[in-house]
Amino acid sequence: MKIIVKMKNEFIYDLLLFHTYSKFSGFLVNVLGLAIIITGGLLLGMDEIKLHQAIMYVLAGILFLSYTPFTLKMKAKKMMKEPRYESEIAYEFSEQGIDEEILGKTNSYTWSQVEKAISTPKDIAFYVGKEEALILPKESFGDHFMPVMKLIAENITRDKIYIR
User: Fold this and answer.
1) Do both 92 and 155 map to the same domain?
2) For the segment 114-155, what is each residue's pLDDT rounded down to a tens digit?
3) In the chain, which end has fewer C-beta atoms inside a 10 angstrom radius, N or C?
4) What's the whole-model pTM score?
5) Containing domain of residue 142, as a range?
């Protein structure tokens, strides 16, 4: 089964968001941002601060909450300028593994090389190295989605699959 992928910012951004917010540190950033906003509201309600000070708390909380998504969006844009994402990438799935054809070069990965397979709202990613992932937008699968999922289930152990 061959899948052709034309990468877009939104697909890389989706994976970056997943990685950031699936970790405790990503969760903690959101909690701290909300805590700043809530603290401002509570202090205003108890007449400990004035309205303009409460607005500063809210703005600080919003800044805290929006910083990570903004920087990840910029990182995705920067990554899209890499040569690997400028042209189409062809992925072929078989019983042996995944072949990636990119920039005139073919890379082959056996199923045993796949460290984990994850899904995000827009992507399926296969980790084939410490810092290397094959990112396939779900929309690129077309009619091949279920057959590929079947191959994944047959060839990757359950503890390596994080696909819902």
Assistant:
1) yes
2) 999 999 999 999 999 877 899 999 999 999 999 999 999 999
3) C
4) 0.84
5) 2-7+83-162
Measured CA distances, 131 to 73, 128, 141 (Å): 19, 8, 24
* Rounded distance between C-alpha atoms, residue 79 and residue 83, angstroms: 9
Token digits for 48? 């400990």
| Contact (CB, 8 A) for 88 and 5 | yes
Query: Do 51 and 115 lie in a common domain?
Result: no
Report d(CA 160, CA 152) in Å as an integer.
10
Query: What percent of the chain is helix, strand and coil (3-state, nearest 5)?
Result: 55, 25, 20
Residue with tokens 């899948």: 3
C-alpha–C-alpha distance, residues 28 and 32, integer Å: 6
pLDDT value at 49 more than 90: yes
Pick from 67, 59, 75: nearest CA to 26: 67
